[in-house]
Design brief:
alpha+beta; globular; nine-stranded mixed sheet; 3 domains; about 20% strand; Spore Coat Polysaccharide Biosynthesis Protein SpsA, Chain A; 12 helices
């Protein structure tokens, strides 16, 4: 039985085989400020593990909670089903393996009501803690109203739905719906909404706790292990490029940036793609995608020579040839002798002045030398990097065994950022690993000479 009282907001939750996580999630729903005035719509998407019983028990205890049961159709279909039942002026979405912050929904609602915003975008927390993309740069300066997403171009990378509150009349007016039968349905829904909204409010506080599953079974955890994701994300990016064209040249550039960054990880993995992925069938549309992205946009996200080569091949239509005959990698066991200087090959995003950047080992320490800067001269590193990072970054591969495709590197260069220097750990197979402390902003040229750091004991390969 559905409660007929007016609701302040609606919360739509697709649920599929999440019995293990449901108790803590439902407890967070019940703890929401204004829970009794929230239309909670739980959609059981064909669960078989006890999820339905937990949902039914919760709905039975609360008259304003509605349970819908359907055969398994995927999260897009489940969210659409719930969206059709919304009777409130604003709607939020959540996943049943995460946790809601008690005053998060009420804070988003208050933000939306202040200036009749079509959309509120808030921060969220990851558990375990980890960096979560360029859109985080839009937070940290207080609450704001965004009149055009082109004023905050990195906001487009906030593609999830569970840190947002949507105006229901706005969704009806724009005929917003989730795609069904594909993944990345969040981006299909959220990115067009960001482009179409008259006003977007940024709420500078976390409203949601995104929990990474320990078993690696969530969609994001298995992002590039699933062959279907390569096609689904490619189709998404092609769609967004077309959408950007309809919105004009500034928005088109935003969509090119979105496609260039979000598909780069898939492009990097194509040489070691899942065995059930038909790479040959994918390549024509990969070519079409990269033909639609201008070169300066592609260069913005390059972090190694390998990135640049893969992007160039994809744009030229020769990626199949490159994948069929990859360049040979250096042999293992290539750790330099103590005191022997090794040059660090430069990525196109970095330039050298005077002596090229290089490194050498001295017992348990590593020393860097040379002077380097970004091509645009804006500084080094990223304020959103974690304390450790993969070591194929702005400086290209120096030691690269076939099993890792990694080498000596500094972090990617970004505007108004930091210089991160590194501790290097070398395995018996010659693999170098970086640990990154954070330092003050150092724009322009950076002198690497006379810098040394402890070099931990080699670790066994394997």
């Amino acid at each position: 039985m559905t409660d007929q009282r007016p609701h302040d907001a609606a919360l739509v939750v697709p649920c599929f085989n999440v019995a293990e996580h449901l108790p803590s999630f439902l407890a967070s729903v019940a703890a929401l400020d204004g829970f009794d005035r929230t239309q909670v719509i739980l959609v059981d998407d064909g669960s078989t593990d006890g999820t339905h019983e937990l949902l039914a028990g919760f709905a039975g205890r609360h008259p304003h909670v509605q349970l819908i049961t359907q055969p398994n159709k995927g999260p897009g279909a489940a969210r659409n089903r719930g969206l059709r039942e919304v009777r409130a002026g604003h709607v939020a979405f959540a996943d049943a393996d995460d946790v809601l912050v008690p005053d998060g929904l009420s804070a988003m609602l208050a933000s939306a009501r202040r200036n009749d915003a079509d959309l509120v975008v808030a921060d969220f927390t990851n558990v375990p803690l980890r960096p979560y993309g360029r859109w985080k740069r839009c937070f940290g300066a207080g609450d704001r109203c965004v009149g055009s997403i082109t004023d905050h171009p990195d906001l487009v990378f906030s593609a999830s739905v569970w840190n947002k509150l949507f105006s229901v009349p706005f969704l009806r007016r724009t005929k917003a719906a989730f795609p069904e039968g594909v993944l990345f349905e969040d981006a299909w829904f959220s990115v067009p909404a960001l482009l179409s909204a008259r006003r977007v409010n940024l709420l500078d506080r976390p409203v949601y706790v995104y929990r990474q599953r320990g078993d690696g079974s969530s969609i994001m955890d298995s992002l590039r292990r699933n062959a279907g994701n390569y096609r689904d994300h490619l189709d998404l990016n092609l769609h967004l490029l077309d959408l950007g064209t309809r919105h004009g040249p500034e928005v088109r550039r935003l969509m090119e940036r979105y496609a260039a960054l979000t598909y780069l990880g898939f492009l990097r993995r194509l040489p070691e793609a899942p065995p059930d992925l038909d790479v040959a069938a994918l390549l024509p549309d990969v070519h079409r995608l990269y033909q639609g992205i201008r070169d300066d946009v592609l260069r913005e996200f390059v972090t190694s020579r390998r990135d640049a080569a893969l992007q160039t091949a994809a744009k030229a239509g020769s990626l199949g040839d490159r994948l069929a005959a990859p360049r040979p990698l250096p042999l293992e066991g290539s750790r330099p002798a103590d005191g022997e200087w090794r040059e660090l090959p430069l990525n196109p995003a970095v330039t050298a002045q005077g002596l090229p950047p290089r490194y050498r080992l001295d017992g348990d320490r590593v020393e860097l030398g040379g002077t380097v800067a970004t091509v645009d001269g804006r500084g080094f590193g990223s304020r959103w990097t974690s304390s450790t990072t993969p070591i194929s970054a702005v400086l290209d591969t120096a030691v690269s065994p076939a099993r890792t495709h990694r080498g000596v590197a500094l972090l990617q260069t970004l505007p108004a950022s930091t210089l991160n220097v590194a501790t290097l750990q070398i395995s018996e197979g010659g693999v170098l690993t970086l640990s990154l402390p954070r330092m003050e902003v150092l724009p322009g040229w950076v002198d690497l000479s006379a810098m040394t750091w402890p070099l931990p004991e080699p670790v066994p390969a394997g």
